[in-house]
What we know:
Elements: H1 9-12, H2 15-18, H3 22-34, E1 40-41, H4 44-50, H5 55-63, E2 67-69, E3 75-77, H6 80-83, H7 97-100, E4 103-105, E5 111-113, H8 128-133, H9 149-158, H10 172-185, H11 187-201, H12 213-232
Antiparallel strand pairs: 1-3, 2-3, 4-5
Helix pairs in contact: 3-5, 9-10, 9-11, 10-11, 10-12
Amino acid sequence: MANKRMFSKQITSSDAFIDMPPTSQLLYFHLNMEADDDGFVSSPKRIAKMINVGDDDFKILLAKRFLLPFPSGVVVVKHWLLHNAVRKDMYVETQYLDEKKTIQIKDNKSYTELRNEPVTEPLHRLGQDRLDKDRLDTEHSSEDKKFTKNGAELIKSFETINPNCKRMYGNTTQRTACESLIENYTFERVILVIEKTLPKTNGMQYFPTITTPLQLFEKWSALESAIKKYQSEKLSTKSKVAF
């Protein structure tokens, strides 16, 4: 396995990447450094603990699909082939062959889940000259994440605090954030936070302002911490905020 790794500015300078918290960006760089020559990482959560970043940072990378997860706990760097081209005489194929069989390479040379469609390229090293000519498709394909009825309900709930959320039903990033919120915190709890908590906390001092599903996903931990601090300083149950 090669000891040096490269990073494409197409990814690390993109709005989607820059908008992430610095700790999420840091974790992404470390995971790339620990990945094998096909971009697979065996113990992403262990690496997160080693560099002292939170589990939410790992979840953000999954929600924004900078990483693709597998049931085994292994992840693969979605844009690995845009970052790296390992010389054939140094390349060592990943040991995670079962996981490798379930993904394919899209036309923009990023990994995606295999969906019974023709594979555009076999999973082998591509020449650097070809990689340099490829550009990143900045819009996530609608096939990347199925949007559920509950996800649509989350966006609708946001309309009470942000009328512009009506435009987000077709926004893949916001839709993905909705599904990640439901997966991590349950639909019932997220709805409670949107309808009961955010109307109170938005605008309050020391509370994060949250008006979109993506902001809620990225700032969930900050909101939770602010609420706990607020409640600990109040003796009356009437002052408590639902979370």
